[in-house]
Amino acid sequence: MKKALITGVTGQDGAYLSKLLLKKGYKVYGTFRRSSTPNFWRLQSLDIYSKMNLIPADLLDMGSLLEAIRISDPDEVYNFAAVSYVSTAFEQPVGNAEIVGTAVTKILESIRYFNTDIKFYQASSSEMYGNTHTKFQNEKTPFSPASPYAASKLYAHWITNIYKDAYKMFSTTGILFNHESPHRGIEFVTRKITNAVAKISLGLEKNISLGNLNAVRDWGYAPEFVEAIYSMLQQDKPDTFVISNGVPHKVKDVAKLAFELIGKDWKKHVIIDKKFFRPLDVEYLCGDCKKAKKHLGWNPKTSFEKLIKLMVKEDIRRWKMFLDGKSFPWDAPLYPSESKIISRNTKR
After folding, report:
1. Given the residues 76, 127, 224, 338, the one annotated as active site
2. How far is CA 185 from CA 45, 74, 157, 189, 343, in A?
3. Which is the catalytic residue, given 125, 147, 152, 171?
4. Active-site annotation holds for 149
5. Domain membership of residue 268 as a residue range
6. The domain that contains 14 carries what CATH number?
7. Are residues 143 and 121 both part of a single domain?
8. Residue 166 pLDDT exceeds 90
9. 168 and 310 fall within a common domain
10. How far is CA 71 from CA 19, 29, 57, 67, 280, in A?
């Protein structure tokens, strides 16, 4: 039986990859950060929590990383642990650099110390491209990071390639463009919109505040993206692959489509708030995944329209279940703004 260790297992990608690996017969270990509020709702929602082997670990503590690798003795390590919300990186740039960037060196050193035969995957990001002013970005497009998060990801990306070349380790990087699902966090703009649309459709709220509506991104479906990630570690040689849908859309398009799905005009409910603008924004990102299609045999299947519809439908279902007094794993109670609505409606 193959064994895999996933850092950041409680996040969207970690949870979906865990489900995929369990289906393939792996024994799956996952590291998580201890906190006052446990965050296992995704694993519970996907009905895999009881099948997981969870290990508390701190990315800044190399001893705990070594211990996680010792306990799991993995064939494969997937690193998803990061502070992935870009705007937070401007507020906490030093912490972001340590967790997103230099912590990856600690993981690689732990693998090198324990067993160099372990295959390693590093989750790189399309944010590393920044404002490159190219219609599509691929594996050869120059990087130009425009945030502390992107700069940290770029460090992690390059250090992974350095360990591959210097120590002949199987260290692969996947440059993933935006990928969403109903298990995306509410702080991310797509889920922020679909969650708000669900509440507005049920009369729980009236408006949503957003930032730059003209930012363009390439949005895909997370469960499909983790299939590509898995395929990367099954290749004969480590390499770098761009994973994307290849179709650009504005944030405005997300809002327009989501509100159309509930029969409302988005312009009557969206408020522009300058506090949601980044100090330095990336205006356009769209990926070219021809290499992944050719070498991994991977193709995106879920369109932008189908993705947003799926997310809106699921958020409406969740809020209806809440209003019906049902108990289920979800993330809204973890957010102060959402818990106020929950508390208000619980008292009715």
Report:
1. 127
2. 14, 28, 24, 9, 20
3. 125
4. yes
5. 185-218+248-283+303-346
6. 3.40.50.720
7. yes
8. yes
9. no
10. 20, 9, 12, 6, 42
